Amino acid sequence: MQDVITAATGKTDDLTPEGLFTVTVKAADPYYRKKDIKGGDPRNPLGTRWIGFDAENTDGRIYGIHGTNDPSSIGRYVSNGCIRLQNEAVESLYESVPLGTKILVVTSAKSFDELGIDYGAIKIDN
User: Is 87 among the domain residues?
Assistant: First the structure.
């Protein structure tokens, strides 16, 4: 059985981009540029890790999977487009996801296997 990780995504459907992206940037204790908050500061909304990806032709510094300083926000539609996880979850993911990893962001009722087939990650031998 697969572990389930709950996330928080965009306040509206159009904020969190969907598609197949590439991890281009990783940062421990990321700096929050919008409000000039250093990494490690308890006020930093990015939490303890940043895994940035190239959505909408960006460089991995705009959209990402990151931690949070507000654990109660997880499981809700609250972000400005990023995918927010509990700090413990993103720290675990951070260690196992190298730069260049492909990530799929979709809203779907399909299973992981069905999505894998659709996006060519799983091959069916006939």
Answer: yes
CB proximity list for 97: less than 8 A, separation 6 or greater: 23, 26, 51
Is 112 part of the annotated catalytic residue set? no
Catalytic residue flag (residue 111): no
Look up the CATH number of the domain holding residue 57.
2.40.440.10
Whether 79 is covered by a domain: the verdict is: yes
Instruction: Tell me the two tokens of residue 110.
Output: 């399909």
Q: pTM of the full predicted structure?
A: 0.89
Q: What is the pLDDT of residues 13-35, one digit of tens each?
A: 899 999 999 999 999 999 999 99
On whether residue 65 sits in a domain, the answer given is yes
Residue in 63, 66, 83, 94 annotated catalytic: 66
